[in-house]
């Protein structure tokens, strides 16, 4: 029986296989893009401060929850996130499964002035180049979706292009793989990408295993200031929050509340 992740990866791998563009030319085109804003640096700047950093997400829908907020104005929402004190943004660009787009990323980045991660399923070198060309300051690499060579190669290319890399993991084995690939920005996703169910204790269990020097991000399942506070106490530097923020009647206040949780 195919899982959510299987279906999504089949789509993205098929797209990548049919993409005949030259990687070398795509890399050359990236040289014309303005310098990145420093996604990891924005999170690093909050280390040691009493408030946890918030990566606020622009997310229209998901495969498991369906429509969350289809009529989002990405620029308006991103501006509200910035007003609430978000350190960075996460913007979905996967269209068939999450309703996102490169246009959402560009609008959010322009309106907020914040560094932005392209939240998508990166499965090729061209995907990394596309993230850079659309203006992303960071690219997501999901360990569960990539083999060891892809993790190393995609991270190396992103670094060469001047953008940061968030490597997403779920367990000890994936943590070992991420560290072997040189990851210094690691997200622990509490959502199982096979079932899409959330285990709200996963990040706390994994926290002691994350080494010093790694910027630690907890992803999924963060709903309340108490959730944020527990993750800060566990040693996380940042939380990535989507669903509760896009559904909030006051996203700026919701971000501020999470930061002070």
First CA to last CA: what distance?
A: 40 Å
Q: What is the CATH domain class?
A: Alpha Beta
CATH architecture: Alpha-Beta Barrel
Query: Secondary-structure element sequence?
Result: HHHEEEHEHHEHEHEHEHEHEHH
Annotation field: number of helices: 13
Largest sheet, in brief, is: 8 strands, parallel, barrel
Q: How many domains comprise the coordinates?
A: 1
- Strand percentage: 15-25%
Keywords:
261 residues; alpha/beta; TIM Barrel; eight-stranded parallel β-barrel; two-stranded antiparallel sheet; 13 helices; 10 strands; globular
Characterization of the model:
The protein is α/β, with parallel strands linked by helices and 261 residues long. It has a single domain, classed as Alpha-Beta Barrel (TIM Barrel), CATH 3.20.20.70. Helix content is 43%, strand content 17%. The chain contains 13 helices and ten strands. The protein has helices at 4-17, 23-30, 39-44, 74-83, 95-98, 102-112, 125-133, 148-161, 172-180, 202-206, 225-234, 243-246, 251-259; strands spanning 53-58, 61-62, 66-67, 88-92, 116-119, 138-142, 164-169, 185-189, 215-219, 238-241. The strands form two sheets. It has an eight-stranded parallel barrel, surrounded by seven helices. It has a two-stranded antiparallel sheet with strand order 2-3. Helix 2 runs parallel beside helix 7, helix 4 (74-83) packs parallel to helix 6 and helix 7 (125-133) runs parallel beside helix 8. The longest helix is centred in the first third of the chain and has 14 residues, at 4-17. The radius of gyration is 17 Å and the shape is globular. The protein starts with a helix and ends with a helix.
């Amino acid at each position: 029986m195919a899982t959510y992740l299987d279906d999504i990866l089949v789509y993205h791998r098929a797209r990548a296989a049919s993409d005949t563009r030259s990687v070398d030319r795509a890399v050359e085109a990236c040289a014309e893009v303005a310098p990145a804003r420093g996604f990891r640096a924005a999170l690093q700047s909050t280390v040691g401060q009493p408030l946890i950093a918030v990566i606020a997400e622009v997310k229209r829908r998901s495969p498991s929850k369906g429509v969350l907020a289809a009529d989002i104005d990405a620029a308006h929402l991103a501006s509200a996130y910035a007003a609430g004190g978000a350190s960075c943004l996460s913007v979905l660009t996967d269209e068939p499964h999450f309703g996102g787009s490169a246009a959402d990323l560009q609008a959010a980045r322009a309106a907020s002035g914040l560094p932005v991660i392209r939240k998508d399923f990166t499965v090729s070198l061209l995907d990394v180049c596309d993230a850079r060309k659309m203006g992303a300051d960071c690219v997501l690499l999901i360990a569960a979706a990539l083999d060891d060579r892809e993790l190393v190669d995609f991270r190396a290319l992103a670094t060469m292009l001047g953008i940061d890399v968030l490597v997403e993991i779920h367990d000890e084995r994936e943590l070992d793989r991420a560290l072997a690939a040189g990851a210094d920005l690691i997200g622990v996703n509490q959502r199982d990408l096979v079932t899409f169910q959330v285990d709200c204790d996963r990040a706390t269990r994994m926290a002691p295993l994350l080494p010093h020097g790694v910027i630690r991000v907890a992803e999924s399942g963060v709903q309340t200031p108490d959730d944020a506070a527990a993750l800060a106490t566990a040693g996380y530097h940042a939380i990535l929050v989507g669903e509760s923020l896009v559904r909030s009647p006051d996203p700026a206040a919701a971000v501020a509340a999470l930061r002070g949780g």
